[in-house]
Amino acid sequence: MNKKPNDPAAPPAPPSTMEVVGLGLSKRYRRERRFRMFGLAAIVGSLSFLVLLLGSIGMKGWTAFVQTRIHLDIHLDPARLDVQNLATANYNALVRDATLQLLPAVESRQDRRLAAGLVSGGAAFELQRIVTRQPELIGSTLSLWVIADDEVDMFVKGHIPRDVPETERRVSDKQIGWIDQLTAAGRLEKRFNRTFFQNGDSREPELAGIRGAAMGSFYTLIVTLALSFPVGVAAAVYLEEFAPRNRWTDLIEVNINNLAAIPSIVFGLLGLAVFLNVMNLPRSASTVGGLVLTLMTLPTIIIASRASLKSVPPSIREAALGVGASKMQTIVHHVLPLAMPGMMTGTIIGMARALGETAPLLMIGMVAFIVDVPRGFNDPATALPVQIYLWADSPERAFVERTSAAILVLLAVLLCMNGLAVYLRNRFERRW
Amino acid sequence: MSPTLLVALVLALSVLAYRLGQRRAHALAVRPTGRRLHSRPGYHGLLAALWCAVPALCIIIGWQFAAGPVLTSLALDTVTSQRPDLGPDQMNLLVTELRNLVAGHTGSREIDPLLQAAADRYTALAQVSRLALAALALSVAAIAAFLVLGRIHPALRARNQVERAIEILLTLCSTFAVFITIGIVASVLFESIRFFQKVPITEFLFGLNWSPQMAIRADQVGSSGSFGAVPVLTGTFLISAIAMSVAVPFGLMSAIYLSEYAGSKTRAVVKPLLEILAGVPTVVYGFFAALVVAPLIRDLGLSFGLSVSSESGLAAGLVMGVMIIPFVSSLSDDVINAVPQSLRDGSYALGATRSETIKLVVLPAALPGIVGSILLAVSRAIGETMIVVMAAGLAANLTLNPLQAVTTVTVQIVTLLVGDQEFDSPKTLAAFALGMLLFLVTLALNVIALYVVRKYREEYE
């Protein structure tokens, strides 16, 4: 652009590069800002979903940690309780009479049944347990906070609003009147829900607890840990320290990487076909669940352990070898202790994943309705996530609350495990 | 003698052998005239313990596997010799009945006296075999330990032998992964082959009708069930596509923002938070999808005058997409970070804005890795089970409408296999055929993805 500006024959000067750039600049900056906003929006969107997820489950579930109980004065009539035969006495009738005593205005047969329905069917069992344990109580009047029926519980907690027409709720107007009456008399209260942590599964939501499932999960995880940690560490040590570079090692490595990405349900199919049908191991047992989850978590542990072994600097090995240690001594005395925190972190993360896993357990029959709390590795059991799945299918409204509460417990345990893993990593991991 | 007690006894013996070996080696070492020990006393002890425990444990384990079939055939000898015309199916039935009898599940049926005799024989034989096993295992342990203890000598290269044994153990552990893969392939393959003997493979792959319910009466319509997997595959594809259409934009944009725009503090906070999404168990997502998202979508659809199934593929797909976001974002984040800074600097030097640099330089450079991470995410979506089991339907509709109920491969596997099943009906076997399909597809996706990612990584290293 060396032309003289005052030359009339020259065409008008083409815009300079700066001008060209300047023209589009505001548009480009706008685009830049928009792009950046998209990125931010993606993160905000994902995180708000997380908040929504946890929030809605928390809102639904936290009320399950308290439970409505009704204060009854039960007269243990010696005429109705045979000391010789405590198992067969009609405890239901005792509880019903005590309930009706609180509501003297109830007259008609139908109303009496409704009123008795305020108390859970589990109250009779509770009473039976107490009387069988302390037969000397017979003849006295027992003051007892018994569990209320699940619909009453839902109403008291506000999950069933008052303004819904009577036909659309399971608590009738009369029952609401009685509930108000009992509350005013201080006979109906929300108390800490011990049942939820002490009981196994039940068809009655107010009696259902997570103890059975939690113990099942516990046994399953013990089996998984006992098998997958030693095998995983051993495999990692071999692959990282001993294995020659050849086809076979490559095959093993490819295999491990692929196993880590195979859908968990396929491991369930393996468990069903091999452990149950070929090896005839017991169905629904924690042992089999643990075996299946072992197969699933093994790749995770191997990969984490290898990374941990890799991060130990070669100088450590060379120093040990230099003072005359054998290869095995080098590894056992020096490399493994240094790599252990990383391996443990990986193992805990693998265990957390195994604890949250449901699909393979469905395949091997850990999905049954099991009331008893399992007492050993071969007892029929479910696991916590399977229990959540089972309850989520139940139609009773109170089970929604229970399910959410079970989820809260599960998430809390997972959070603790992951927190422990992070703590271990921060506390013991060394940067070389 | 129960196997647990036997194992405990063998282990106790081996601990004893360890102590004895250690002490003997020690005695050799402190003797003033003795030569120096080649290995430290602990290794001598370990060697003795290993020789004591390993052969005995091998015998016990082998016996556990062999005892059942051998005893059964011995016990059934009398039955089969009297009824030589039994087919294999009847034979299986006999074995099952025998097992029930032995376990004490008699029920109320009349028991064949011949079978009862066989069961009694089985119990007696089992008793004898347990005793024989105990005697054999314990004596093998004792003899082996005795022989090794006798061989302890200053020149014995105990350490080398122990280390060799440990190395063999490590090698065995590392081959475990291969055995798992073989186990998976074998278990799905054998059952699938049995399935394809009953249902032709072409019908399975190309049939348009999936209704695996077997009829009770033979003359019922569709009494044999129909096993065309196309609707199931379409459903899987549909839900995965919905999931990916959520996960890819959200995951990718999050990764870009985190690696290119966010400061290190934001990164340190946001990244773990996103990882929480990946750590939430899938059953929780399933519960959320079924309880919150599906009704929300149905109500939304109704307010627009659309009929939405309460088990629509949309709800399951959306929630699954959210679950996969951290998967896509962390993998893409790694890939984007691996793009050398010099490429970005060059682009900035030419006057490009950040977003232009990202769109025109960074993303094309990272594309293979991003594609790899997306493929891995797809395989994740296809194999995801609990969300679809809880939120998607069972009806195999051949449709691409996300508002209708569709079913997926994993849902079908679960519904076909949960509960009591007979193990020979095509219904149960179909689940294994679907499982094989699932395994093959995810395997292929993984292999391709890993190949792409690895190839790309090498380019800049």
Description:
The complex is a heterodimer of chains A (432) and B (461). Chain A is mainly α. Chain A has two domains: 63-193, no CATH class; 211-428, MetI-like fold (Orthogonal Bundle). Chain A has helices at residues 17-61, 91-102, 109-116, 122-133, 150-156, 173-184, 195-198, 211-242, 247-261, 264-278, 286-310, 314-322, 327-355, 359-363, 384-392, 397-428; strands spanning 66-75, 141-147, 188-192. In chain A, helix 12 (314-322) packs antiparallel against helix 13. The longest helix of chain A is centred in the first third of the chain and has 45 residues, at 17-61. The relative contact order of chain A is 0.10. Chain B is flat, with a radius of gyration of 32 Å. The mean pLDDT of chain B is 85. Chain B contains 15 helices and two strands. Chain B has helices spanning 3-30, 41-82, 88-103, 113-151, 158-198, 201-206, 230-261, 264-279, 282-303, 313-338, 341-349, 354-383, 386-391, 409-417, 426-460, and strands spanning 210-211, 226-227. Chain B is an all-alpha fold. Classes of the chains: A mainly alpha (432), B mainly alpha (461). At the A-B interface, helix 1, helix 8, helix 9, helix 10 and helix 11 of A face helix 5, helix 7, helix 8, helix 9 and helix 10 of B.
Principal-axes geometry of chain B comes out as flat
Main pleated-sheet profile of chain B: 2 strands, antiparallel
- Helix amount of chain B, in percent? over 70%
Output the helix-strand order of chain A.
Answer: HEHHHEHHEHHHHHHHHHH
Q: Strand pairing plus helix content of chain A: what structural class?
A: mainly alpha
CATH superfamily membership of the largest domain in chain A = MetI-like
* Helix content, binned percent of chain A: 55-70%
Tell me the number of structural domains of chain A: 2
| CATH fold descriptor of the largest domain in chain A | MetI-like fold
The chain-level structural class of chain B is mainly alpha
Integer count of domains of chain B? 2
How many individual β-strands of chain A?
Answer: 3
Strand order within the widest beta sheet of chain B: 1-2
* CATH class designation of the largest domain in chain A: Mainly Alpha
Q: What is the count of helical runs of chain B?
A: 15
Strand order of the largest sheet of chain A: 2-1-3
- State which percent range the strand residues of chain B make up: under 5%
Report Rg of chain B.
32 Å
* Quaternary structure annotation: heterodimer
